[in-house]
Please model this.
Amino acid sequence: MDFPLPETTPDAVGLDAARLERMCRRVEADIAEGRHPGAQLAVARHGKIALFRSFGEAAKGRAATDETLWLLYSNTKVVTAAGLWALAEDGVISLTDPIARHLPGFEAGGKGDITFVQLLTHQGGFPSAAIPEECWEDPEALRRTVCAFPLEWEPGSRVRYHPASAHWVAAAVIRAVAGEDHREFLRRRLIAPLGLERELFVGLPKREQTRAADMHDPDGTPRQPECGAAHRAAGVPGGGGYGTARAMAAFYQCLLAGGAPILSRRVIQYALRNRTGDRVDEYNGIPMHRGLGPHLRGTTAHIRGIGTLAHPDSFGHGGVGSSYCWGDPDSGVSFAFLSNTRADEEFHVARMERLSNMVHASIRE
Model:
């Protein structure tokens, strides 16, 4: 099956090829220095893939190829959030609704007024809550567990990244209102209509698992359970998706183009508003300018991942220590970088600042 976006050259879409080559050489240098075994990146503009390249090893003794699937970690959050956008567009929910209206029992412990807006902007008040592995394939256990999440502070009073908890709530809501598992809903409603069903997965089928890159710690040790079949299949909605860099660049091209054919322009505009202003995200220590899924560049001095040079309306998300994907509405450029090591924060932040800025600097017109 052909990839849904055509390929072109950087020059043909107004990008400086030499600058992008320098970026690729920087990735190669990081691999040579032992920072990570492999990586993949893609740059797209105006509905075309301008650069798609794979580097190094996907796993020990196995070269990374264009067919390799990479763990997206929290880049998955944007795909899952888009599932809630779709439910709002279809008239099933309103994003300003209390979650408990659609997930009875969630009101327990003072959570009855938490809205989807608060959930997706990391203001829900339960950042430390976790889902045990035994809930991954047990919908009733998942529902009971998310409904029992204890509040740590008053919802809406603080902004603090919810690494694992918020999007399991989203998964439980999707099952409750759509009547199907979140993995199947996201595939049917979003991924398949974009033609990305071979390159973007929330829940990796058994037949595709041989394509997955192993995830490593900085010392090169494979990470568990991320390298296990159960984790790959679970479709952890806040951190367990798999994909190629060009699939993520294409997904962001869809958002840049107003959501067609999967979502409407109005729901995209609504989702990409800055809902937290310049309030500091206590987890990251800086303002993150949270939209309903992605975060935005904004105009503060520093930002994670998207690059300081980015247009203020640029939006995206990262995957812990390993990846970042973003789109720039001003230029129409989207970028995805995926790697297979959960690197330390100091290196990862500096790397993504460098790589993203090199892409921004390549925009000629």
